[in-house]
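Q: I'm teaching a short session on how sequence maps to structure, and I want students to see two examples side by side rather than one. Could you give me a first protein with its sequence written out and its structure tokens following it? Keep the formatting plain so it prints cleanly on a handout.
A: Of course. Example one:
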Amino acid sequence: MSITPHDERFMAAAIRLSRWHLGRTATNPSVGCLIVRDGVIVGRAVTALSGRPHAETQALAEAGALARGATAYVTLEPCSHHGRTPPCSEALIAYGVARVVISVTDPDPRVSGRGIAMLREAGIEVDAGLLEAEGRHSLAAYLTRQTKNRPYVTLKLAVSADGMIGREGEGQVAITGPEARAQVQALRAETNAILVGIGTAIADDPLLTVRSPGLESQSPIRIVLDPSLALPLTSKLVETARQVPVIVVASEETSLLEAEGLPPSALPDYRGRATGLDPSFGPPTGEIGKRRDPNSPVSDGDGFALRQDVVQGANPDPISPLVGEMPGRAEGGASPTDMDSRRAALEAAGVEVLYCNPYHPEVLLPALATRGISSLLVEGGAKTARLFLEAGLVDRIQLYQAPVVIGEGGIESPLDATDIPSGFAHTGTLMFGGDRLDEYERGL
């Protein structure tokens, strides 16, 4: 049977439905399913919160006997393997649907193509690939975690008319208006985790929660790149860690010091051990429009010294923080006792300490994926933004441009609309009050 305009209309509705629970279905994808009989929707569902039950079984239960002979529109190939629940393909067969229309084939090797084969073997007509681009967009986080073993990364920047993202020494500075800020709250609500650098965490003392009425319970996990465990115990993040999870990413060099009680100079080849990578492995190369002096470190308050040789992939060594950035750091390294006490205090407050070199996002992101994080919003700090951009590990850029002027003492944005990295396509422009949002994405 050929695809009809009615098929496209129902699949578009299923894709819209799938977005209802984005970021709230644990490691499972948020899938939309419609059961349609004689042009009428008799059952509909989206993957339940926490990932179960799946969309198909809920929609079939709602349709009941009307599912026999009906068409099911599903945004992702129905599962074919036995996990905590029976396969959705078996449920579709048992209810007697006559046809299944699928947007995206599941890349999970336990499912890929097998769900379709199971349906066809049962005599059910299957059409796959309908509105696939739109379906893949709605499933971007799940697909990225499945195929790249890391979360889908969105970089959000709010840039003033004079190209700044803030002002030195003033903490949080309002750049966009209330309409744009409300949109960012909605983005946080559909994202598993949000990440900032320690410089931003200290300077701004942000909460990083969702504050829109009715969406507060959808606050993402808060992550801070904090190599020396400098996050203050009095910060809002720490004080709310038992309500909304907080992860601080500490340098694995610190972990080695604690384990062995030695300064860095006494640890042979500790750089390679800190990343867990073969010394010949370099970070993915990326590019941004502004190039810097390769002989000088880049620093902008996020606690990072990003060497140009690492940016260009010429040296795989992790980037060491500048001497003096770590509280209590001496020339030979931080005191293991001090670091241990900081860790203990943070953990006592409910903060998780993750030892995974924060200067290598290609190591950090898979570690976050193992914790069930499929989508990550990088929101704080010019240095942190550059770190992910120059590693080539940003999938989507949301660039807000506001009419306000920061002026003297401003912190320069790591990019603007004129120097978007190659490989990104401009996917749309929206206006929120006087603020303009341009979105750019890489292909999945």
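Q: Perfect. Now a second example for contrast.
A: Example two:
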Amino acid sequence: MHSTVSQPILLLNCGSSSIKYQLLQTDTQQPTAMGIVQRVGQGSSTLDHETGGQKFHLDQDFANHTEAMAAVVAMFHEHGPALDEVIAVGHRTVHGGDTFQESVLIDDAVIATLIELSDLAPLHNPPAIAGIEAAMLVLPNVPHVAIFDTAFFSTLPPEAYTYAIDREVTARYGIRKYGFHGTSHQYVSQKVAEFLDRPLSELKTIVCHLGNGASISAVDGGVAVETSMGLTPLAGLVMGTRSGDVDPGLHKFLGSKGMSLDDIDTSLNKQSGMLGLCGFTDMRDVATEIAAGNADAKLARDVYVHRLVSYIGAYIAILGGVDAVCFTAGVGENAAHIRGPVIERLKGMGFELDVAANEQRSTEAREISTPDSKVHVLVIPTNEELAMARETMAVIGR
């Protein structure tokens, strides 16, 4: 992205009841507008639009993503910046299955395939498709690009992505580990190389993407070799409302107690994780509760840290050593009370935490390990929108 002429790209991230958007200038790599629509199809929808230091708010019910997208376009029309300069629209698309291993130009065939893949990501793909169709309706004359969360992990070796189940069942249903948050893991692993001023090709890096959804990856020379999320985004680390790894026998056990498959799925996806353990999903609240002596909050954090340390240790073994461990996303970038205990637990593997550096709040990339540490411990803000813009440019440049 080295163009000198400003060429705005509209970036869309559609959730089941939301649309997050950003208008990014390709020359400055800075957003000139951003916003979010919330509670789509739930009554009492809201739209917040920010541009030029001003904020605009709208309360209006949107029955679906098409109505919400039309309101977003109207907001741009009324308050700017104009969308007639937009050269492309980039769409975050969670699950590409086996079919999409890189970002693609969207056409009817791509949409049809995304619909087929929806049962692999029932929470994520249907709203993304609705957002794509709505955006193509209101911006029909520019290219639309699908950027897949799973694409970066298409390089996983077979021993990492294969589940030890009946191989015929695997083949019939396309069952394998796919991995998610790939756009972030790829962006951050590249930023680690820049920060350390070393070639990406010679670095062994572990990226901890810790937000409400959380995942960890092992990246060897810029190539993903392992990750914690699996067939769906439910596997792996403890998350805000998701359980992460549980005994696969739990489903049958809970079923025998009278819970339906849907009930169990809802419980593990929406009522588990930090919420299920202590009633809070925001790590700031968890820290406050721990300080106030809340034993449930302390146990929740300890489970969270234990799971993360277990994965880091496993990934060091898979990589055959590690040069850098990096924390990113909302929790990773801001929760010193999570990073600190994780690194302390890794002391025996040569990690040394700079306590003062860890406690410091910053929006900049920084190192929080001491000069004596055998492993660089970094905090690097992710920028999925910028990564999406670069992908969009690459696709339309082809």
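Q: What should students look for in example two?
A: Point them to this: Residues 295-319 form the longest helix (25 residues). Also worth mentioning: Residues 115 and 145 are 16 Å apart (CA to CA).
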